[in-house]
């Protein structure tokens, strides 16, 4: 969940998001380094004092400032691609959750790999007035998923393109009509996770939030039975 | 009569500058309305479709009616023939047509907002929202507006390419062509190759909306993702079209204001711009990392996008290198160029963060993206635009601006845009999505800060308007230029004579 005056990412709720946060820290370190280089040399250049109008080329330095950035980019690309293949390398998950976007609410259908749909639920945003502090984030029903269980999430849409996301879990998938997009997530803690629709979908685009609760497996099955 | 049938490149350039300035104020007004809505929690405008229409129109107006007309149409038309030693553009009447096509185009765009419910789709106009999701004629008007703007730019591109290849003075081989002319040439080639794809994509959208075709309609066997591929195949070169002329102008400003005869590493600069242009065509899907592309595809686009950082870095380092051994003049236009170097670098670096398809999953369609592109546009393209305006204003008009006020205006704008867009990085990291009319209370602080900043920027550009009016009224005539003879465009009188060259200039090594 986000906090007031937040500067960085939300606390991670899945292993992949933790890795994203580390990767972002690493990339930030590099880009702050590059920015500092540019600023320092810019200022030193203005203060340099010597004048030589013939200083218009330098083969060695130009070679260096072509090669070094390329090496730095490779340094960034390695972990980036490693992460990409890591998150897409999914094992068998027994639990499948189908997410369907509508104008302007989300609906979920839970099933296992080999069963029929066990439960389905529609989640409409609660009215803005009176939601006090959690305005625009609360829905009347919400999704519950068991923690430490790999879940396969299939996202699609009923009408226009939406996007289902939970920033603290590091997942986002566009809900495109006629298409099933797969997300793989394993919740690592019992908590409430919030997200909001992330693809413009009409007048109430700002008002179709995502609420997900991470619970123990027994609690998850109790919830399924209730639905 | 002189203005409706203008064929002089200087007149047409002036027309573009004036039209672009007017549209710039329209776009700025829309941006202020957007920030007013977001300055507080809850609803200000009371109509979220209207908010979406404003966001869409803000982008279209700024891109197609401000940045492109001013940089390519305004500065391109004014400076390219002067810098080449050519009497005019290759096709003067086509030049005029390109300008006047923008008028009905802007009218159609504004009409699209005025009729029915407006086009609240974002400037990307994705179906099905823009097809089945927007009944009524608004999106059709917007599509026709884009058709006309596209034709205008396409014909202009043909004109620039013909001029630059054929009307150079004898002795001006391609490696002696000034950097701004190179930038315009590359921009024109990008326009030539990418605009037809946009035209195709939006025409298919038009037929989907009106003639029952199903290019993007799933129920007929179509695919909304096709539109996204086609749009971004245009859309990515488009953003390089927006920045390349700015690169050229900054090179000129830095070279002239530091009394160097040229920037550091001219050949490197030319190759860098050409590489950026070519690479810009093979990276489009980094705008589509969350639509469900294949993993290997995402890996390719991540890597290809990162490669573009290398030529861009070469340019930044070369500009910094030009400052060494120079005598900086600290004039207002020099300050704009310095601001450009610093802030464009920052924007480019956040682009590197976004190019990682893994990390982009968390940042896609959040305010981090908004921060990134406003840094490279509002502080890249617009700084280049305003700096060039200040720099060449004496040439175009024959009178000078107040330099003290110009510096104050620079500082106000610098402070304003940074206060507006820096907090958006925080909002994006925290998870605030784009194109939102209202947000959870947690996002209030940075949104309020950003809205304050937008008012500061507004004051700055209003002050610029006043400065220009004062300059024209006070009539401080230009006595001469203190630039070196490598800047051919400044060897003219201010303003240049109607027929700038009565005979061909000669080139000496």
TrEMBL record, chain A:
> Is Ribonucleoprotein among this UniProt entry's keywords?
no
Give the molecular function GO annotations.
copper ion binding; cytochrome-c oxidase activity
| Primary location class | mitochondrion
Q: Which GO terms describe its cellular component?
A: mitochondrial inner membrane
* Cell compartment(s), UniProt: Mitochondrion inner membrane
Q: How does it assemble?
A: Component of the cytochrome c oxidase (complex IV, CIV), a multisubunit enzyme composed of a catalytic core of 3 subunits and several supernumerary subunits. The complex exists as a monomer or a dimer and forms supercomplexes (SCs) in the inner mitochondrial membrane with ubiquinol-cytochrome c oxidoreductase (cytochrome b-c1 complex, complex III, CIII).
Q: From which domain of life does this come?
A: Eukaryota
Q: Cytochrome oxidase subunit II copper A binding domain location, by residue?
A: 92-226
Which Gene3D superfamilies does the record cross-reference, listed alphabetically?
A: 1.10.287.90, Cupredoxins - blue copper proteins
Family, according to the entry, reads as follows: Belongs to the cytochrome c oxidase subunit 2 family.
List, separated by semicolons, the cofactors it needs. Answer: Cu cation
Q: Which residues form the Cytochrome oxidase subunit II transmembrane region profile domain?
A: 1-91
Under InterPro entries, the record lists: CcO_II, CcO_II-like_C, Copper_CuA, Cupredoxin, Cyt_c_oxidase_su2_TM_dom, Cyt_c_oxidase_su2_TM_sf
Q: How is the cofactor bound?
A: Binds a copper A center.
Catalysed reactions listed for this entry: 4 Fe(II)-[cytochrome c] + O2 + 8 H(+)(in) = 4 Fe(III)-[cytochrome c] + 2 H2O + 4 H(+)(out)
Q: What is this protein called?
A: Cytochrome c oxidase subunit 2
Functionally, this protein is described as follows: Component of the cytochrome c oxidase, the last enzyme in the mitochondrial electron transport chain which drives oxidative phosphorylation. The respiratory chain contains 3 multisubunit complexes succinate dehydrogenase (complex II, CII), ubiquinol-cytochrome c oxidoreductase (cytochrome b-c1 complex, complex III, CIII) and cytochrome c oxidase (complex IV, CIV), that cooperate to transfer electrons derived from NADH and succinate to molecular oxygen, creating an electrochemical gradient over the inner membrane that drives transmembrane transport and the ATP synthase.
Identify the coding gene: COX2
According to its UniProt entry, this protein's organism is Tigriopus californicus (Marine copepod)
Automatic annotation (TrEMBL), chain B:
Query: Which Gene3D superfamilies is this protein grouped with?
Result: Cytochrome c oxidase-like, subunit I domain (1.20.210.10)
Keyword set includes Magnesium: yes
Q: Which GO terms describe its molecular function?
A: cytochrome-c oxidase activity; heme binding; metal ion binding
For the Cytochrome oxidase subunit I profile domain, which residue ranges apply? 1-508
The annotated pathway is:
Energy metabolism; oxidative phosphorylation
* GO CC terms, sorted: mitochondrial inner membrane; respiratory chain complex IV
What's the EC number here? 7.1.1.9
Per the annotation, which location comes first and is thus the protein's main one? membrane
The places in or outside the cell where this protein is found are: Membrane; Mitochondrion inner membrane
What SUPFAM superfamilies does UniProt report for this protein, alphabetically? Cytochrome c oxidase subunit I-like
Its function, per the record, reads: Component of the cytochrome c oxidase, the last enzyme in the mitochondrial electron transport chain which drives oxidative phosphorylation. The respiratory chain contains 3 multisubunit complexes succinate dehydrogenase (complex II, CII), ubiquinol-cytochrome c oxidoreductase (cytochrome b-c1 complex, complex III, CIII) and cytochrome c oxidase (complex IV, CIV), that cooperate to transfer electrons derived from NADH and succinate to molecular oxygen, creating an electrochemical gradient over the inner membrane that drives transmembrane transport and the ATP synthase.
The UniProt family comment states: Belongs to the heme-copper respiratory oxidase family.
Q: What is this protein called?
A: Cytochrome c oxidase subunit 1
């Amino acid at each position: 969940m986000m906090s007031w005056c937040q500067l960085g990412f939300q606390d991670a709720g899945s292993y992949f998001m933790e890795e994203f946060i580390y990767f972002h820290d690493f990339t930030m370190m590099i880009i702050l380094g590059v920015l500092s280089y540019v600023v320092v040399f810019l200022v030193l250049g203005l203060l340099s004092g010597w004048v030589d109008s013939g200083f218009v080329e330098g083969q060695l330095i130009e070679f260096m400032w072509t090669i070094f950035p390329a090496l730095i980019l490779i340094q960034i690309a390695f972990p980036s691609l490693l992460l990409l293949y890591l998150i897409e390398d999914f094992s068998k998950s027994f639990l499948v959750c189908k997410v369907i976007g509508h104008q302007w609410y989300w609906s979920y259908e839970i099933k296992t790999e080999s069963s029929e749909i066990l439960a389905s639920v529609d989640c409409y945003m609660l009215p803005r007035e009176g939601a006090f502090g959690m305005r625009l984030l609360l829905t009347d029903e919400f999704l519950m998923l068991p923690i430490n269980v790999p879940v396969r999430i299939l996202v699609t849409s009923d009408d226009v393109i939406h996007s289902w996301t939970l920033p603290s879990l590091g997942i986002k998938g566009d809900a495109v009509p006629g298409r099933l997009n797969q997300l793989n997530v394993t919740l690592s803690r019992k908590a409430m996770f919030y997200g909001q629709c992330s693809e413009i979908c009409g007048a109430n685009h700002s008002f179709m939030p995502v609420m997900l609760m991470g619970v123990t497996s027994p609690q998850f099955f109790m919830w399924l039975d209730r639905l | 009569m002189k203005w409706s049938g203008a064929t002089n490149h200087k007149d047409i350039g002036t027309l573009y500058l004036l039209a672009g300035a007017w549209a710039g104020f329209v776009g700025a007004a829309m941006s202020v309305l957007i920030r007013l809505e977001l300055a507080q929690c809850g609803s200000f405008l009371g109509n979220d479709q209207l908010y979406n229409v404003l966001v869409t129109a803000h982008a279209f107006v700024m891109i197609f009616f401000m940045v492109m007309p001013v940089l390519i149409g305004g500065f391109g038309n004014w400076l390219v023939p002067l810098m080449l030693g050519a009497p005019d553009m290759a096709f003067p009447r086509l030049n005029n047509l390109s300008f006047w096509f923008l008028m009905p185009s802007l009218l159609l765009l504004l009409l699209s907002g005025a009729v029915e419910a407006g086009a609240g789709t974002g400037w990307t106009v994705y179906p099905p929202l823009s097809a089945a999701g927007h009944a009524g004629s608004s999106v059709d008007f917007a599509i026709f507006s884009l058709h006309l703007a596209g034709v205008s730019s396409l014909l202009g591109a043909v004109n620039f390419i013909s001029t630059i290849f054929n009307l150079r003075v004898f002795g001006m081989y391609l490696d002696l062509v000034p950097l701004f002319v190179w930038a315009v040439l590359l921009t024109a080639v990008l326009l030539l190759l990418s605009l037809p794809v946009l035209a195709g994509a939006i025409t298919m959208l038009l037929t989907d909306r009106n003639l029952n075709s199903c290019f993007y309609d799933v129920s007929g066997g179509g695919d909304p993702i096709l539109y996204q591929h086609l749009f971004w195949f245009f859309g990515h070169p488009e953003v390089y079209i927006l920045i390349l002329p700015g690169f050229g102008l900054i090179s000129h400003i830095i070279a002239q204001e530091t009394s160097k005869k040229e920037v550091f590493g001219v050949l490197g600069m030319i190759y860098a711009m050409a590489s950026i242009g070519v690479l810009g065509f093979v990276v489009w899907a980094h705008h589509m990392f969350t639509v469900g592309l294949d993993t290997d595809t995402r890996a390719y686009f991540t890597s290809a996008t990162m490669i573009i950082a290398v030529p861009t870095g070469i340019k930044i380092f070369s500009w910094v290198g030009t400052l060494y051994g120079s005598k900086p003049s600290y004039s207002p236009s020099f300050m704009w160029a310095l601001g450009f170097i610093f802030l464009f670098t920052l924007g480019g670096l956040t682009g590197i963060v976004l190019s990682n398809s893994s990390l982009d999953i968390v940042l896609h369609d959040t305010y981090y993206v908004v921060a990134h592109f406003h840094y490279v546009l509002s502080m890249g393209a617009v700084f280049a635009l305003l700096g060039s305006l200040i720099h060449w204003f004496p040439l175009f008009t024959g009178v000078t601006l107040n330099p003290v006020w110009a510096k104050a205006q620079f500082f106000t704008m610098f402070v304003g845009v940074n206060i507006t867009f820096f907090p958006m990085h925080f909002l994006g990291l925290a998870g605030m999505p784009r194109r939102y009319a209202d947000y959870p209370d947690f996002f209030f602080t940075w949104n309020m800060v950003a809205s304050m900043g937008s008012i500061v920027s507004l004051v700055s550009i209003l002050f610029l308007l006043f400065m220009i009016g004062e300059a024209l009224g006070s009539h401080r005539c230009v006595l001469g230029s203190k630039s070196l003879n490598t800047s051919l465009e400044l060897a003219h009188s201010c303003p240049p004579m109607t027929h700038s060259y009565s005979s061909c200039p000669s080139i000496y090594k």
